[in-house]
Amino acid sequence: MPALKVYPAGHFPTVQAPESSFTGEVVISNYFERPAPSRLVSATVDFAPGARTPWKVNPRGQTLLVLSGTGWAQAEGEDIVEIRAGDMVWCPPGQRHWEGATPTQPMTYLAMQEFENGRSVEFQGAVTDEEYLRGPAGAAPRP
Q1: How many angstroms separate the CA atoms of 108 and 2, rounded?
Q2: Over the stretch 19-69, which tens digit does the pLDDT of each residue have?
Q3: Burial (CB count within 10 angstroms: exposed 0-12, middle 13-18, buried 19+), residue 23
Q4: Can you give the C-alpha Rg of the chain in angstroms?
Q5: Beta-carbon contacts of residue 65 (< 8 Å; ≥ 6 apart)
Q6: Is the domain defined by 26-131 classed in CATH 2.60.120.10?
Q7: pTM for this one?
Q8: Domain boundaries of the chain, sorted by first residue
């Protein structure tokens, strides 16, 4: 078995995220799952301005690496925070949260998580416009 496998650009499909799960224009590309014993699942996710995930839980947690743009993220019970290109975000196992672009800026991130009991995410309902438009509470501009 080869020790290294290269997947050329464009190898993995690009799809529109399902409107039943996401709000706004969201494109998922480079989605892959590694075979056991690995549990890794990853994808690149592009959010148009105003687009966002639903409330969700990742049973084994989720790491996001913001590749471009500006977005918002929120853990349930906490304020919305701004995230920017170069930021890495950790969502702990079982923490209900959401993320997406700001109303005026697109955002792209690389999402990485692991399977547990055959799933890596549980969607739990749309983030309402009212919840989303609260934006970051008293956030000072970041450099």
Answers
A1: 32
A2: 888 999 999 999 888 888 889 999 999 999 999 999 999 999 999 999 999
A3: buried
A4: 15
A5: 87, 88, 89, 109, 110, 112
A6: yes
A7: 0.90
A8: 26-131
